[in-house]
Specification:
Helices cover 41% and strands 12% of the residues. The longest helix is centred in the C-terminal third of the chain and has 30 residues.
Length: 444
């Protein structure tokens, strides 16, 4: 653990000294941001009344402090996170909370009249601001504008983000009978396609199962682990649809780093450390369409890597998308930043493959927009799934993360079917557009 923290400290020292930025005080490697906040809070708590007031009986504050000292659920990482941090080795990325290691000097006084309260600046916001001026920059946009490429606009317009026709009309009565209080507008039902009773009933069983599991996790205040299981199950059910022909699969990348520092944003020539996302959406190597292509490419170059990930089983696959999963209450800015850096590295890897000729020495012409593929991803924080689309900005060679886009979720029947249809549409795009374009790049 200490090696990971030392790496972040070293990176920050180099960046700040070379940029002549305002010095950002770093915490000791042995404490977390939560610990520092707790220590400050303990310093400003007024003293408890003398115990003589209630002889032989501890005060309420003493009881609370004793319980806090024995166990604090906010500072205890989940088992999965502890395992991830213990297993990781020092590298260009870190599985520990890199974001919490950056901290601006606190404001001297808050708006409160109390002279002892301070306002802590979010380290996540600080990193997002640094990324905006990295080389190349990583930028976030919330909606399309005059600078958005037409192929991105067309992609968004082709997604069922408004929820129109996302539910088979054959399920209207069963939904009404099973969930009489569920408010579903008429436009959500699709009456234009012929009913397929068997398929629709299977889809309904999938919906009720996933929704119930998500509801149970929410009520039970479950940690991230169970939510990750639900996300995996949901994606596997989507990809199992016959129309997708098994082209996509779900890959666990919790323990996999970005393979090369050249694929990350840089400040003064130094790669910015990152955290990982949880799940990659990959083009499967086990279908009649994809298996021969992967085998031929590996035969011609056994060491070739098709993705930005270091894990061998994932590095040999094309990755059009990802999902960053979190329990309810996870910081969205942090989740979107993790997703953004993953997408940045994915687009950089595609650019490397475009100029591959033994070595990666050529320069990509970003002005040729039609040659640029996009990648996509979701932040899945509890029941709330938000879609993001990443593309190359031709004006400065940076990467733009467009989102969050409301693509449904796991909180209601309407949200489930909108998410199911959105993931299906992007999986079809990966099968019909991303994979052929990827082949044209690597087989050139």
């Amino acid at each position: 653990m200490s090696d990971d923290w030392d790496f972040i400290d070293s990176w920050l020292d180099n960046v700040l000294s070379s940029q002549h930025l305002e010095t950002l005080p770093l915490k000791s490697a042995s404490i977390s941001s939560q610990d520092s906040i707790t220590s400050v809070a303990q310093q400003i708590v007024p003293p408890s009344p003398p115990s003589s007031i209630f002889p032989g009986r501890p005060s309420l504050k003493q009881k609370r402090r004793a319980r806090s000292d024995s166990y604090n659920c906010d500072t205890m990482p989940s088992p999965r996170k502890r395992i991830r941090a213990q297993d990781d080795q020092p590298s260009i990325t870190t599985a520990t909370s890199a974001f919490s290691d950056i901290q601006l000097a606190p404001t001297a006084h808050s708006r409160s009249s109390s002279p002892t309260k301070v306002k802590a600046t979010s380290s996540v916001r600080e990193l997002r601001d640094i990324y905006r001026f990295a080389s190349p920059p990583l930028k976030f946009a919330t909606s399309v504008d005059e600078n958005t490429p037409q192929y991105i606009i067309d992609m968004i317009h082709g997604l069922p983000l408004h929820g129109v026709g996302v539910i088979p009309s054959s399920l209207k009565e069963i939904i009404k009978a099973t969930l009489p209080f569920e408010d579903i507008p008429d436009y959500a039902f699709n009456a234009s396609t012929p009913d397929n009773h068997f398929t629709d009933q299977n889809l309904w069983r999938t919906a009720t199962s996933i929704l119930q599991r998500a509801k149970d996790c929410f009520i039970d205040n479950s940690s991230e682990g169970p939510w990750l299981v639900i996300a995996n199950k949901f994606l596997e059910d989507v990809f199992a649809q016959p129309e997708l022909e098994g082209m996509l699969c779900v890959m666990d990348i919790q323990y996999s780093d970005v393979s090369s520092a050249t694929l990350l944003p840089h400040v003064n020539g130094t790669a910015i450390p990152t955290k990982k996302v949880d799940v990659a959406l990959a083009i499967s190597p086990h279908t009649p369409v994809t298996a021969p292509v992967y085998a031929a490419l590996r035969t011609s170059d056994p060491t070739i890597q098709f993705s930005q990930m270091s894990e061998p089983s994932v590095s040999r696959l094309a990755l059009p998308g990802c999902v960053e999963v979190g329990e309810p209450g996870k910081n969205y800015l942090e989740a979107s930043l993790q997703l953004g850096v993953w997408c940045f590295a994915g687009l950089a890897k595609l650019d490397e493959l475009k100029v591959r000729s033994g070595d990666y020495a050529a320069t990509v012409d970003y002005s040729k927009v039609e040659q640029n593929l996009l990648v996509f991803g979701w932040t899945a924080i509890g029941m709330d799934w938000k879609l993001h689309i990443a593309y190359r900005d031709t004006t400065d060679n940076g990467v733009v993360i467009l989102g969050p886009l409301d693509s449904g979720g796991l909180g209601s029947v309407m949200a489930f079917f909108k998410l199911f249809k959105t993931v299906t549409a992007l999986a079809k795009w990966a099968k019909e557009k991303f994979w052929p374009e990827f082949r044209s790049i690597v087989e050139a």
